[in-house]
Amino acid sequence: MGLFDVHAHLTDRRLAPQADAVVARAKEAGVTTIVSNGLNPTDNAATLALAARFDIVKPAIGLYPVDAVLPEMLAAGVEYKRDGDGHPPSAEEAVAWVADHLDAAFAVGEIGLDRYWVPEPFWERQEAVFRQLVRLAMAADKAIIIHTRKAERRTLEVLREEGARRVNWHCYSSKVKLARQIAEEGHFLSIPANVRKAQNFQRMVETLPRDRLLLETDCPYLGPVRGELNEPANVAVTADYAAEAWGCTRADVEAQLSANFEALFGVAP
To answer: Does residue 108 contact residue 142 with C-beta atoms inside 8 Å?
Structure first.
């Protein structure tokens, strides 16, 4: 029993240089597992390398939904600010990379659909790539970590059609009514550390089934203090909020959420 972070980005250029200190602070806060999520082949490789350095870091490898169609978007003249130089890899290259490294992965993520940054002409292509990754994860018996924005309902439809069950929705920010449907599907939803500033996340903690919730940070984003870099130690903020909302002890929260983690990933945090 303890705390965990199912969605971190420890390879982010703002956190990677201080990884030793970040992990040390997480351990001091009682965090026993950090699932660091990859975004593309380069980031996935860095995530695997980081996991090899730290016993509490588990690597999720995936393809950020925008990256799935980014070469086509750039070729069509769509403007999109991104890190890194050079031409981004094709979806075929990125999916093949994930397939080749699945044995080393703790989970597949983050993957999904994004209609906030991606224009409609690229939606069909994005969905086809998403389905490929879902099928890879299911064939390898890996949990799936979802990123979706402005496409939550379609994402759920695709996951239903593919028969995906071991799924966590990271930083879900659409209607709570749909979140209840996601929970009824047997999927999980993880709550970030800015919960005290976000009514949507508060309502999810307060109204969704407790056995469908998990902890995340999405660090270095969504920290409890605006303007400060987020990090895995801050999952304690969400655990404390859940204890208040549920009228129970922190130990009770940790026991419930640890059981949820094990139900999703097949191992205890």
So the answer is: yes
Separation of alpha carbons 99 and 234, rounded Å: 32
What gap in Å lies between CA 19 and CA 141, rounded to an integer? Answer: 29
> For residues 16 and 36, is the Cβ–Cβ distance under 8 A?
no
- Distance CA(231)–CA(217), nearest Å, equals 7
Closest CA relative to residue 147, chosen from 104, 110, 95, 178: 110
What residues have CB less than 8 Å from 132, skipping those under 6 apart? 95
pTM: 0.97
Distant-in-sequence, close-in-space partners of 37: CB < 8 Å, separation ≥ 6: 7, 8, 9, 47, 60, 62, 109, 110, 145, 170
The answer to whether residues 187 and 212 touch, using CB atoms and an 8 Å cutoff, is: yes
Please state, in angstroms and rounded to a whole number, the distance separating the CA atoms of residues 144 and 163: 12
The encoded tokens of residue 28 equal 């001091």
- Residues 97 and 63: their CA atoms lie apart, in Å, by 10
Q: Render pLDDT for 146-200 as a digit per residue (tens, 0 to 9).
A: 999 999 999 999 999 999 999 999 999 999 999 999 999 999 999 999 999 999 9
